[in-house]
Amino acid sequence: MLEHGGNLRDAAREYGRPLAEWIDLSTGINPHGYPVPASSASAWHRLPESNPALAAAACAYYHAPAMLPVAGTQAAIQALPRLRAPSCVVVAAPSYAEHAHHWGQHGHSLRHVPYAQLANAVDSCDVMVVCNPNNPTGAHIAPEVLLDWANRLAQRGGWLVVDEAFGDTQAQAGLGPHAGLGPHAGQPGLIVLRSVGKFFGLAGLRLGFVAAHPELLSKLADMLGPWTVSGPAQQVALAALTDARWQDAMRLRLRDEGERLRQLLASHGIASGGCALFQWWPEEDAEAFWHHMAQQGIWVRLFRHAAYGIRLGLPPNEDAWLQLEQALTTWKKL
User: Fold this and answer.
1) Would you say residue 59 has pLDDT above 90?
2) Strand 278-281 to strand 309-313: parallel, antiparallel, or no bridges (unpaired)?
3) In sequence order, what are the residues at sequence separation of 6 or more whose Cβ sits closer than 8 angstroms to the Cβ of residue 235?
4) β-strands 67-70, 208-211 pairing
5) What is the pLDDT of residues 229-257, one digit of tens each?
6) Sign of the dihedral through C-alpha 238, 242, 246, 249
7) Entry pTM
8) Quick one: which of 181, 184, 187, 183 has its CA closest to 213?
9) Kind plus residue range of the DSSP H or E element containing 92
10) Tens digit of pLDDT for each residue in 11-55?
11) What per-residue confidence (pLDDT) applies to 172?
12) Distances in whole angstroms, Cα of residue 226 to Cα of each of 46, 72, 78, 221, 255
């Protein structure tokens, strides 16, 4: 298995600090999660048949013509490479590592292309995979550029897969709360992945959505099989996706806290970039920084390979903000 953030048990074991004494900033998940309503008894008792209301709520929230609920976008990431004959695949680098890991299997030819150079690779591949905003750097590609790439790929039967897991907070850049490609995902060749875990802070729900042409969604649903999303997950997600008041207030809160984090890092000489949910920077002493923060009880994400640097999410409360500031101060004194 690939290494991911959120692995606090590894941190506790390595550093001998109990789980309850850690601040986890390693995932970029909203620390102020949606208040989960109680699930009905039937959600636990009955087999979780698909609820059309959930798909409809997702279509309304993401402004997409059709969406398939899946057990986290990870399920789609693992399944999509199995829906194509061996193809020439380009995955942005750096990027969420699970994409390349799975496209590198099933007979596909895989190429890593730097995020800033993707435009030069569109016409030399069958499939292109892009995180937008990028994970872990937060870099962003304009929707009109991605649509042009999708059209060029579709003309020869190709796909553009756009992972918008962190897309819900893009309102901070003046792009609107739903500035993704969902409205265009009914066209052939464009596949959009959306996550409930990041913005809503519900990663444990294991729920995501795929927006794509109906024919492809049907093939994906057949491959994933029945009962892919639990009954309680469906009920919680339906409440979250239709709670516009909570969504609007949370976008404003995350925008402010994201800027606070950027400014805090800048005040300690760290020039970072990212989105409302995390900041990332190429750190020359990345492993030393990661080790120092762990010694202070703060778990951050260390990237050792394609993006050698640090990603750091939002603290959950004022005590955690203070602990982070103190850890940054002592780092700079080393």
Assistant:
1) yes
2) antiparallel
3) 37, 39, 40, 43
4) antiparallel
5) 999 999 999 999 999 999 999 999 999 99
6) positive
7) 0.94
8) 187
9) strand 88-93
10) 889 999 999 999 999 999 999 999 999 999 998 999 999 899 999
11) 37
12) 13, 15, 16, 8, 38
